[in-house]
From TrEMBL:
InterPro entries: Asp_de-COase-like_dom_sf, MoPterin_dinucl-bd_dom, Mopterin_OxRdtase, Mopterin_OxRdtase_4Fe-4S_dom. It comes from Sulfitobacter sediminis. It is found in: Cell envelope. The keyword Repeat does not apply. Pfam families: Molybdop_Fe4S4, Molybdopterin, Molydop_binding. This is Molybdopterin oxidoreductase family protein. Its cofactor is [4Fe-4S] cluster. Belongs to the prokaryotic molybdopterin-containing oxidoreductase family. The lineage of its organism: Bacteria, Pseudomonadati, Pseudomonadota, Alphaproteobacteria, Rhodobacterales.
Length: 937
């Protein structure tokens, strides 16, 4: 009778503002509920194409990210020694004056002395545009130490890869196989997709040394030995080819399997494609028996025919594949022990892939016309799909492993078909459709072209006239010729060593390089603070931009404070890393749903100001005035080429607003805001599949401005540029590699995917694999300052498999010393049964340095949290040859984070995890003991 009266439906907000999340790289749509002008609640946007209303813990916790006590408050200049954390707040005008005082002289004399590298931002088309206008060749972003192997391998092989490049056909897939997928990447779409296919009874196979997240809900878990994924994949290819379970029609029509190769071992063109006078690859037409370009009307390439001309026999790519992969070296029995997977299981998984691909194939009644002019009444479905990410990419054999996985998909005929892997616009785009890297600098003028791109042979390497590297990170050199994304993990080390040359200013954005984003953390901190014989810093000037008081802030000379993601304009663009789905082109914005309450500015807007003050051509008008008032102005008014700007939606046409191509629309951002912060243009049904070869898709892509003309192509099972590098290493051509790299190039740059052991120099006695993995509730280092997310992962143990726990007499809560050839850490351990028996791992980026992120000095992240980064070095242990060998993939230069080998031993529990570094003095101080506020009544 006396029950209390409760308001079960309180008013959550006065207004809902729709924008794009930035709590990971997923770019979900969010509804930000506002109460009394403040953020009260964040939920998923049900209308958004990425997440369809689903939101993870990170997304919901964005309120805490926005209100974090660690937010920087104003521009700052260093007043104490580097690394001390002693700063003085200054005005933006003074900050710009300091930056210009450093940057203007080097731009006018030697622009390469600026190294401008950005971390996990999502505006790389803009930041690269700024760097190109400055004139420095030294620009790159996060991809070089994350997943460039996956991206580059995919583009060179088939014109795209996983995640932002493509996705499984969730509506038709019946077998889904994952390799090494990080749980914080693309998480909501994958969760939605796995739920959808499991509801239909589809099977999920997870390949990962660690069974968490997606692997925990997989029907089958394959606890593979780290670094052997490529060997496992090639063994399955062996099984499929031996059993004849490959799609020969698909291979002949849509790949280079029928393209002829020069077979004369003495020829300087040995192993290169046979081409006509127009550069078209040549095949033997199965119908006429004649030599013909692959793309002629009605041509059906022959996978078996050879061609003899001028005393040289030319064989199809497929012959080379059969010779390589039918070898007993790839038989399951030969690889099982190294992979940690029984031979019987390898054969069973290969058989299951074949069974589903071919026995459960189906037809869709979608008529389409291919690039050879042939009309097909149906589309053939192969309902097997794959997804993979950094887990298989971050090894020194990662590029070839990723190539192997793309090849497996292609052999099964599962790429761009119903039920398989599908590209997302603006992909597919083969390597030949991308720019080549440019390093032509002129003092006081822009660089001669884009920094990053795809090389097609030795002539495209970024070398100076004397053969030395043109870039500070040595990207696109003989050491790592097919870099694609640069080598961010080598910038500080190379700059400190003056190898290949010294720089004046290191300018970084959102890259926590003194802590969790760097190999060799102690060494990196030393390099950032080292002085020369004159008492000057070896790296003279460091400019850094971040939104928060991270570990890296203390090592900068000038701080440009960024906003939080709810206070800024951003553009998730088709020119960059868009939010497209396989069925639609889409892009999105962020906009200031709240105004900053501090003297901070979005980094991209700060670059607009700085670009104008430096007189950069792309950022000034003819009269010298500032061209773009801020980043929002740039987003609306910038055109990369006529009619193509950062945003594809609501552009101005002759008859009003239109999509894709069109003129500037002053109200464009308002239109995005009104539509929920995003734009979508669906692909016509006839263009939905077979995108690289489908004339309807090619025409639609031209209309949307993705291409300027139709650009059909065939997949490259055989990557000819790699053979060109091998030929150079064999002594052919004018541009030659240094002698000490010849054998490595010949061994690792095979044009067909191979597997090789990674370099284990110096690892004697270190026999246990050690990995990091990101938790779903965290993203890089940002999440572990978040008051809500810290309750999920306040500290991290080292997870140890049962076998090693028993061998070392360890129990949960014990501590272990973990050592590598580079260093040691002392950390708490926890047993995990669902783990490869010779692998230990931990969550990445939970450990924090005392004083950073406004955390209490006794915060568990600083006392029980830790990083494996302390055990990893950007250079391999000395080989005794006097060379500095990078801990990187020899093809792309991607950081080989996951090749780490360690030794573990039980020790007495210390008071805190080790190593212990002195606390950083934070410019924002320590946060309150209790973080609480009330929004509304």
């Amino acid at each position: 009778m006396n029950q209390p009266k409760l308001n079960l439906s309180p008013k959550v907000s006065d207004e809902v503002r729709k924008t794009t999340c930035y709590m990971c790289a997923c770019r979900c749509g969010i509804n930000v509920h506002m109460k009394d002008g403040k953020v009260a609640y964040i939920e998923g946007n049900r209308d958004h194409p990425v997440n369809q209303g689903v939101l993870c813990a990170k997304g919901s916790a964005g309120i805490m990210q926005h209100n974090a006590p660690s937010r920087l408050r104003a521009p700052m200049k260093r007043v104490g020694p580097r690394g001390s954390g002693e700063f003085e707040e200054i005005s933006w005008d003074e900050a710009y004056d300091i930056a210009c005082g450093w940057l203007k002289p080097i731009r006018e004399t030697n622009p390469e002395k600026l190294a401008f590298f950005t971390g996990r931002d999502q505006s790389q088309s803009f930041t690269s545009f700024w760097a190109q206008n400055f004139g420095t060749p030294n620009y790159a972003a996060h991809g070089g130490f994350c997943s460039v192997n996956m991206a580059a391998a995919g583009i060179y092989t088939m014109g795209g890869a996983f995640w932002e490049f493509g996705q499984p056909d969730w509506d038709h897939t019946k077998l889904f196989m994952l390799f090494g997928v990080a749980e914080d990447h693309d998480s909501n779409p994958i969760k939605i997709g796995i739920g959808k296919i499991k509801k239909r009874g589809a099977r999920v196979i997870g390949v990962n040394p660690i069974r968490t997240g997606y692997n925990a809900v997989a029907d089958d878990w394959v606890g593979i030995t780290p670094g052997t994924d490529g060997l496992f994949i090639l063994s399955m290819i062996h099984c499929l080819m031996k059993a004849g379970k490959i799609d020969l029609h698909y291979l002949a029509q849509y790949t280079d399997a029928g393209v002829l190769l020069n077979g004369d071992e003495k020829s300087p063109e040995y192993g290169l494609y046979l081409r006509d006078e127009n550069g078209k690859q040549l095949v033997i037409d199965r119908v006429t028996g004649k030599l013909t370009p692959y793309d002629q009307k009605g041509v059906k390439p022959d996978l078996a025919a050879t061609h003899r001309a001028k005393g040289v026999t030319h064989v199809p790519v497929f012959h080379k594949m059969a010779e390589m992969y039918l070898s007993d070296d790839y038989a399951p029995a030969a690889v099982a022990e190294r992979c940690g997977i029984p031979a019987k299981r390898i054969r069973a998984i290969a058989a299951e892939l074949a069974r589903v691909a071919f026995e459960e194939s189906f037809e869709l009644n979608h008529e389409w016309t291919d690039f050879r002019g042939e009309t097909h009444k149906t589309m053939t479905g192969r309902p097997v799909s794959f997804h993979a990410m950094r887990g298989i990419s971050a090894h020194a054999n990662g590029f070839q492993t990723c190539r192997a996985l793309h090849t497996l998909q292609i052999l099964l005929g599962t790429v761009e078909v119903p039920g398989g892997f599908r590209f997302k616009p603006p992909y597919p785009k083969p390597a030949t459709a991308h720019p080549k890297p440019h390093v032509g600098l002129t003092p006081g003028a822009p660089l001669n072209g884009p920094h990053l791109g795809f090389v097609h042979g030795p002539d495209d390497l970024a070398l100076k006239a004397d053969g030395s590297p043109a870039r500070i990170d040595k990207a696109y050199t003989w050491e790592n010729p097919m870099s694609a994304h640069g080598l961010m993990h080598m910038v500080i080390s190379n700059a400190h060593a003056g190898d290949p040359y010294k720089i004046d200013t290191l300018f970084m954005y959102m890259a926590n390089m003194s802590w969790n984003s760097s190999m060799n953390t102690s060494g990196t901190m030393q390099m950032l603070t080292d002085k020369d014989e004159n008492g000057d810093y070896v790296i003279p000037h460091i400019i850094y931009s971040d939104a928060y008081s991270s570990e890296m802030v203390a090592y900068a000379d000038l701080i440009l404070p960024d906003t939080t993601y709810l206070e800024r304009h951003d553009c998730i663009s088709l020119l960059d890393r868009p939010i497209c789905e396989a069925d639609a082109a889409a892009d999105a914005i962020r906009w200031p749903v709240v105004e900053p309450d501090r003297n901070v500015k979005g980094f991209q807007s700060a670059l607009c100001d700085l670009g104008a003050r430096l007189g950069l051509p792309g950022f000034t008008n003819a009269d010298g005035s500032q061209k773009y008032a801020d980043y929002a102005d740039y987003i609306v008014n910038h055109e990369r080429r006529p009619g193509i700007g950062p945003l594809a939606g609501w552009r101005m046409g002759d008859k009003g607003l239109q999509s894709g191509r069109g003129g500037v629309n002053a109200a464009q951002i308002d239109s995005y805001i009104k539509n929920g912060g995003f734009f979508v243009e669906h692909i016509p049904d006839a263009a939905a599949y077979y995108k690289p070869w489908n004339t309807a898709y090619q025409d639609w892509a031209v209309k949307m401005g993705l291409y300027d003309s139709p650009q059909p192509y065939i997949f490259s099972l055989y990557v000819e540029p790699m053979r060109k590098f091998q030929l150079a290493a064999e002594g052919h051509g004018k541009r030659q590699p240094p002698d000490h790299l010849r054998q490595r190039i010949k061994d690792t740059l095979s044009p067909l995917p191979i597997w090789y052991e990674t370099d284990q120099t110096g690892n004697e006695g270190f026999t246990v694999n050690a990995l990091t993995q990101r938790p779903m509730a965290m993203y890089h280092s940002w999440g572990s300052q978040n008051a809500w997310l810290r309750q999920l992962h306040g500290h991290n143990p080292l997870f140890v498999p049962t076998k090693l726990m028993r061998e070392h007499g360890l129990s949960d809560g014990d501590w272990a010393r973990v050592s590598s050839p580079h260093g040691e850490i002392t950390v708490p351990v926890r047993e995990m049964a669902a783990l490869n028996e010779n692998t230990v791992w931990t969550w990445n980026a939970i450990g924090k340095r005392k004083g950073a992120w406004a955390l209490d000095p006794d915060a568990p992240e600083a006392t029980r949290g830790f990083l494996l980064n302390h055990l990893i070095h950007e250079l391999l242990p000395p080989k005794g040859d006097g060379m500095r060998w990078a801990n990187s993939d020899p093809v792309t230069g991607q950081a080989a984070w996951f090749d780490l080998k360690v030794r573990i031993e039980k020790v007495e529990a210390p008071k805190e995890s080790r190593p212990e570094y002195p606390p950083i003095k934070s410019p924002v101080g320590q946060g309150p003991e209790k973080l609480a506020w009330k929004v509304g009544e």
